[in-house]
Amino acid sequence: MSAKCASKSRRGISLSEAMVSLLILTMVMIVALTLLFSMKSFAERQQVKTAPRQTARRAVDYLSSFVAGATDLNDRADPPSPNAIVTWISTGSSFTRRQASYNNLTAAQAASGLGEEGTDILTVAVPIDPFQVPISRWPGWQKAANMYFSFTDGCDDDQDGVIDANGDAVMEQRFKELTGATPTPPSGQLMSPVLMLIDADGNWGYYQITNYSNQYSCDAKAVDIEGEIRQVNVHVQATPGNSEHINPPGGRPELNDPALAGGMRFYSFRVRRDALGIPNLEQKIGLFDPATDNPGTAFTPIMPNVEDFQVAYMYRASPNGTTDTIFNTADAAIPATIAGESTFGVPPQFGFSTTPSAADLAWDITRVSGLRISITSRSAPVRFESRNISVRRGTQTRANSRPDSEDRAGVGPNTADAQLPAGTLLGDFDHNRMTATILIRNRMLGN
After folding, report:
1. What backbone torsions phi and psi does residue 335 show, to the nearest 5 degrees?
2. What is the distance between the alpha carbons of residues 43 and 386, in angstroms, rounded to a whole number?
3. What whole-number distance in Å separates Cα of residue 84 and Cα of residue 82?
4. Cα 152 from chain centroid?
5. Which of 128, 227, 364, 385 has the fewest CB atoms within 10 Å, measured from its CB?
6. Residue 228 to residues 91, 96, 152: CA-CA distances in angstroms?
7. Residue partners of 285: CB distance under 8 A and separation at least 6
8. Per the omega criterion (within 30 degrees of 0), is the bond before 335 cis?
9. Is 116 left (phi over 0), alpha (psi -120 to 50) or beta?
10. Residues 318, 320: Cα–Cα separation, whole Å
11. Are 315 and 369 within 8 A, CB to CB?
């Protein structure tokens, strides 16, 4: 074969062939990337659309478990459970009223750190491990009073009728565990959380053990208590009304042979922004206190991107003589003043020093048999790639604006979010509202 023929057989592709191949490859890549970005944007859009629904559902389910089981372990009162939903407490020796639940926080309250403007705050009492311990003798409303209990749990675990060798130590440990003894900084002194006293007539008051370092004996001791000999096992010091002077709304009632009721825990819920400007559903173990929860460190964020929390109160009978039974809605409000006192949009919680009329008493929190909880949540901010199919500024839709919720008006998509980067509007998020009506279990049987 000649050199000329060999050269022709080894010749490569021509420039025109290469250009055609490159053009075809480019077209294939363009189509593939277009499909990829379209699918990516669609997937993100679905995630943006689904996220607020899931958040609202989780928040409603979480709150429902607390509301449905709310009680104060007091089955002797009529109406029952006056402290299941806590709207008011009193503080100090003058029994000054203080709110524990709020309706539509004002701009001033939001600025002070209580929560997000326009949202509600709810405080409930939930039984965790209910118990009652008999008091050998009630000393009355004395501060740092000597308290004596009849308590023998742990003294005879093997049930042979003989006190165990380590019975005193076991009984002491169980009494402290039962009443929630916790070291209190800075001294480390053991104190209980807020407990309750409930007497034979259903009257109640707040209570706290402030000193556990006294006597624990399985062999009951005969103690002279104000001239009367009583058999006691536990001797501690306690402060009726709590060391922070927290009392029922109307002050301290006269108690007739009360027992210590515990195993109940107070929970407070609110919506508040974090340092990044993201609204969170927050929870506190304890009564809401506007003097310290502003914002305080006791609240813990439990669910991000919850932007609104609304509570409507459902009465077992219409308190105003109409057909309305649910209040704090768009068309039914709790009166601004009841029995001469401002309500600030939450049901009154009449105390023992107040004698309301029958018309006023119809609004009391004890007449509330359930709550309607509404949660509005939102997605994370939409990414740039999917903005063209996810952001709908200008025209309000169900998803691109915060909807009306009970007695709080909604906000359109072109509203700026001042707590996020400049230019961020509500339309940059998808929103979803979920509502659930929850009956308080121990008020469902016609009580």
Report:
1. -55, 145
2. 9
3. 6
4. 35
5. 227
6. 33, 36, 21
7. 265, 266, 267, 298
8. no
9. beta
10. 6
11. yes
The helix/strand/coil state of 321 is coil
pLDDT tens digits for range 387-408: 454 455 667 777 888 999 999 9
Cα angle for residues 262, 266, 302 (degrees, 5° grid): 135
Distances 342 to 170, 199, 363 between C-alpha atoms, Å: 50, 30, 13
Q: Return the amino acid letter for 25.
A: L
What span, in angstroms and rounded, lies between the C-alpha atoms of 146 and 230? 13
Rounded Cα distance, 171 and 235, in Å: 12
Tokens 């009978």 locate to 317
Cβ atoms 353, 250 nearer than 8 A: yes
Name the token pair of 101: 């639940």
**Contact yes or no for 235/215 (Cβ under 8 A):** yes
Angle at 217 between CA 211 and CA 221, to 5 degrees: 100
For residue 249, which of 101, 70, 67, 77 has the smallest C-alpha distance? 101
How far is it, in rounded angstroms, from Cα 79 to Cα 443?
A: 9
To which residue do tokens 């009984």 refer? 171
- Locus of tokens 């029995």: 339
Contact 251, 169 (CB under 8 A): no
Residue labelled with tokens 């379209």: 38
- Considering 25-29, 45-49, 403-407, 443-447, the range whose residues carry the highest mean pLDDT is 403-407
For the chain, what's the residue count?
Answer: 447
Q: Could you read off the pLDDT of 162-177 as tens digits, one per residue?
A: 899 999 999 999 999 9
Q: Please answer whether residues 392 and 400 qualify as being in contact, where contact means their C-beta atoms are separated by less than 8 angstroms.
A: yes
Model pLDDT, residue 49? 77
Least confident of 88-102, 156-170, 304-318, 361-375: 88-102
| 90 contact partners, CB below 8 Å, separation of at least 6 | 96, 97, 98, 246, 247, 248, 249, 250, 251, 351
CA 139 to chain centroid, in Å, comes to 35
d(CA 159, CA 74): 31
Q: 284 has which bridge partners?
A: 268
DSSP state of 56: H
Q: Are 264 and 73 in contact (CB under 8 A)?
A: yes
